[in-house]
Write the structure tokens for this entry.
Amino acid sequence: MPSILGASTIAEYLEESWNSSPGLAMAIAAIVHVTMIMGLFGLIPMVFIWMERKVAGRIQDRLGPTRVGGRFGWLQGLADGIKLIQKEDLCPKEADPFLFKMAPYITCVAAICGFIVLPFSQGWGSVASDIGLFVLFAILSIEVVGIILAGYSSGSKWSLFGGMREAAQMVSYEIPLAICGLVPIVALGTLNFSEISAVQRGWASNWMLFHDPFTFITFFVYFIVATAGCKRAPFDLAEAESELVGGFHTEYSGMRWSFFFMAEYAAMFLVSGVAVILFLGGWNSGIGFVDSFIDDVVRPSGPSLGIEGFVLGSYIANLIGLKIMLIKASLLVFVQIWVRWTLPRLRIDQVMTTCLKYLIPISCFLFLGSVLWPVVLSTTTGKTTLFDAVPLGDRFQEQVERTNSEPVKPILKKEETKQDKKPAHSNNSAGSQETVSLITE
Amino acid sequence: MTIPQILFYIFALVTCGGAIAVVVSQNVVRMAFWLIVSLGSLSGLFFMAHADFVAGAQLLIYVGGTLVLLVFGVMLTASGAQRQLKMSPADGFLAAGVGTVFLTIIMSTVISVDWDGVSKTLTGEVVSQKIPTGYNKGEEGNTIRRLGLGFLGIRADKDLGAPEDKKISTGYLLPFEIVSIHLLVVLIGASYLARAKRKVAPRTN
């Protein structure tokens, strides 16, 4: 597993401190990552379904769940889960049984896989890919396939309608989603979530949201499009209880039905997490001195935990970052829930019009604007940022220097030792020149 | 057997098994499902080969994009009778013949490559030639910067070691732009042709 920002990975920790073989270390690290992602995937729907019930209750002037597990109904999600497991697993006579059973898994797997590339704190992610955002959007686009297959294979007209609507909606909304994701990327010059978050360290004015007017608008457009992408109300045409019974999941029952909902809540959290990292400073608090306190005082402090440079302080700093990230993402999920219980559902033609006639042109305009913004600003005012903020490139350089000066650098050391262990021909520069020409020819 | 090898065999098996299931199954939508399985695990193979960008593109374009359109199209067009594909034996033989020829071509190409030499080359300096960028101190699989710069005409493997006057190679930006504008024209043209024709009221003077 590639690591990032100088944080050490589980596999490297096992290899260096416990002298386990690379294969075993990799397997254990993989199991730990998978278990944590699966646990998160199980926990997120439980919390957010409880939140949805509570918020819905308050908005409709009732209390929501009040009894299960104490005064606020904390364990309502768990009770729902137990009820759903007990339900009979039905497959209608008209359905294509194989596809009917597989469809929830595709949706679920796509939602789980999204968490592979989403980091939660500095270096706390399963895979620190340099194309994190790209991979995340790619994985999220698979979720639709499961929904369409569910709609088709149920052998019911309601389901088929739901599936068709979902397909039409998603094929259209993926375009503005990708373009809105590109707007901050153009300014940042990286697709790596950790780098994106690191650059936004410091006061909230460093957040991409306040980078220029275009990224500010883009955040709201992205949020609308992402809400539609999770098929949340007012864009929940695929379900549309009042007209299509249950849309694509009309025929499902028990756990298979709840898999769709788990995937939906996980996807809500995923797109909110992406919004937080892209626009809202990721796991940085947005208060300058708090961030510098965490990074300069907390991170290097504390006793070392076996591996070189891995100190207790960095663990605590990452834990604080994780909390900040989770709170920000949960707030965005709360807004999605709030919107759902406040706005009425759109008609399918209104949904398509909103996307094709408004959101796509707006996002294209924003993209163009964000590309032209630095050029126009530097020619007219001679500065590259508004209000004399620190330019992105300088911030990036500062972060690079900060991470490079940190004592936490086991990876670089490992890289060098690996280089030494390589066969002789790799160190021979004349030979490598030949191999270069070999490859390029 | 190392863990990457085991993973490779699992992904390879799923890829090939999915591909065979596409051919064997007779229901069009089930074929689409098996295609998802096959193409998805193919992207897993790309991830294992540290080609992250190709893997992501594989997921986005084939699994996410093309297959949604395929399933969408099948659901819209095929009615009951067409969903079950029944082939005549002649068709089967023809398809098997074409498949065998194609497989032979691919296999002969694969066998003709000197894999020992290639693997020696790949463990050499080519992979470790990196463009110095911020955080990633030369991690495998993170190829996007090299790809992007190569796209613009700055290639790490060619230009960094080349003499001064030959530093810039040709990029792919212009061909890419031409192709994408072409596709845009095709898209607009298709939607113009497909849109519902409104009757134009005859002018009355």
